[in-house]
């Protein structure tokens, strides 16, 4: 499928922001906060389809 292209800090930020948005949605701050599923899933999987399309990679270089 997709190669890993989401590195350390990027992955952590995606998971934290995604989780916070989902918690906000569960607390009733707005249905739009369910968008947090996207960064959460991409952070957990370590791959971002948009990064693949744009040619971005935040993973450290493999030797």
TrEMBL record:
Protein origin, superkingdom: Bacteria
Domain annotation Inner membrane protein YgaP-like transmembrane: ranges: 4-62
Pfam families documented for this protein: YgaP-like_TM
Presence of keyword Transmembrane: yes
InterPro entries, alphabetized: YgaP-like_TM
Membrane-spanning residues: 12-32, 38-59
Alphabetically ordered keywords of this record: Membrane, Transmembrane, Transmembrane helix
Name this polypeptide is given: DUF2892 domain-containing protein
Organism (species): Phaeobacter gallaeciensis
Upper taxonomic lineage: Bacteria, Pseudomonadati, Pseudomonadota, Alphaproteobacteria, Rhodobacterales
């Amino acid at each position: 499928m997709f190669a890993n292209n989401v590195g350390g800090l990027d992955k952590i930020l995606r998971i934290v922001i995604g989780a916070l948005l989902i918690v906000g949605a569960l607390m009733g701050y707005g249905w739009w906060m369910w968008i947090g599923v996207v960064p959460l899933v991409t952070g957990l999987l370590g791959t971002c389809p948009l990064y693949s399309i744009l040619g971005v990679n935040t993973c450290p270089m493999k030797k």
